[in-house]
Amino acid sequence: MGHPPDPYSVPAPVGTSAGPGLISDLITRIPWSRWALVAAAVLAGVLVSFLLCAFCCCRRRGRCRGRHRKKPRDKKAVGLGRACGTTTTHLVQPDVDNVESGPGGPQQWGRLQLSLEYDFGSQEIKVGLRQAADLRPGGPRATADPYARVSLSPPSGRSHETKVHRSTLCPVFDETCCFHVPPDELPQTALRVQVLDGRSLSQHQPLAELSLPLGAVDLQHVLELWLQLGPPGAAEPEQVGELCFSLRYVPGSGRLTVVVLEARGLSPGLAEPYVKVQLLLKQRKWKKRKTSARKGTAAPYFNEAFTFPVPFSQIQSVDLVLAVWARGPQFRAEPVGKVVLGARASGQPLQHWADMLAHARRPVGQWHRLQLAREVDRALALQPRWRLPLPGS
């Protein structure tokens, strides 16, 4: 007793069981086009998910690599952020990554940042001294009073000195100077920068220096450079300035008049320079006077006169010493330079003294180059006394 067969059912193939017949029945009831759509949708979903995962992984790896790559190439680490705001759109900044080195490496003398700009119209090169860093103190002290001196080699007869910066090894100069250099002389010209310690007024100790051949840089653009400083070169004769004064001697009244006129070429770091005028008799201080101080200038103008009674019988035995003094870092007056005149002098000072005696009652004025104070003191103790012709003899 069974149910009658369904007229719409498909008979199972011969040799198959009821299970396979059921699956075949289900497949025949679903259209094949719908199965294709379902399979395509599933495959597309899987493919999109795979692509999204791969994109996210690649992006994360790129970020990690970028972070590791930026650290050693960061220009702010070497202080170029300051230069970017002070130059034109033609700024050229050489790679300065090699500037950062460990202690005891090439930077033991320090570094210097400067700018170079050449004007082909006026044939002038403009040198901008920005700052120095990691300077090396010249003595047992842990600091210095640095300033920079800029010149050209071969010498052009002109140089520029910055202000003295007290108690620092990283001074910020921010000063500009110009030199006239024709274009055909650029390949043979070098820029020389010396960094000196201005703590002592009578002798400034060199700390470091550099020499940059102008023919080795591209002056078609404005340049901002960080350069390594090297050891200081051979010591040059210290230039402490010049002093102008006049002398007048009247034999009848025995009066010596000294008019201190002006000074020039003094160190820009001097505070309130003034001039001491001393008369020495037989190597002993006899009479002394001094001018008033002048503030804030390296070329003070005095125009002050001093008269000393010097009998005619003693004019061959006196020494006239003029010294420029100024306050030092410890607020104590120190001698900057001296010049000595008299029978024990030599060179131009001796000639000036002889001209005063030969032209009695007439003022004789001259410029004199100042010498280091210790050298003058040593000369006064060693130099012999000369017999000069006197008026009327």
Protein architecture, described:
- Helix content is 19%, strand content 34%.
- The chain has 393 residues and is of the alpha+beta class.
- Strands 5-2-1-8 form a four-stranded antiparallel sheet, with no helix packed on it. Strands 4-3-6-7 form a four-stranded antiparallel sheet, with no helix packed on it.
- Strand 14 (318-327) and strand 15 (333-342) form a beta hairpin.
- It is elongated and about 140 Å long.
- It starts with 17 loop residues before the first helix and ends in an 11-residue tail after the last helix.
- Mean pLDDT is 77; it is low at 6-10, 12-19 and 66-107.
Short description:
19% of the residues lie in helices and 34% in strands. It has helices spanning 18-29, 32-70, 347-358, 373-382, and strands at 111-119, 124-133, 146-153, 160-161, 172-180, 190-197, 205-213, 223-228, 242-250, 255-264, 271-281, 284-290, 301-309, 318-327, 333-342, 364-369.
Give me some keywords for this one.
alpha+beta, four-stranded antiparallel sheet, 4 helices
* Main β sheet profile: 4 strands, antiparallel
Query: Helix and strand succession?
Result: HHEEEEEEEEEEEEEEEHEH
Number of helices: 4
- Our measurement of the CA-to-CA distance between the termini, rounded to an integer number of angstroms, reads 175 Å
What class would the helix/strand composition place it in? alpha+beta
Task: Itemize the secondary structure elements and their pairings.
Layout: H1 18-29, H2 32-70, E1 111-119, E2 124-133, E3 146-153, E4 160-161, E5 172-180, E6 190-197, E7 205-213, E8 223-228, E9 242-250, E10 255-264, E11 271-281, E12 284-290, E13 301-309, E14 318-327, E15 333-342, H3 347-358, E16 364-369, H4 373-382
Antiparallel strand pairs: 1-2, 1-8, 2-5, 3-4, 3-6, 6-7, 9-10, 9-16, 10-13, 11-12, 11-14, 14-15
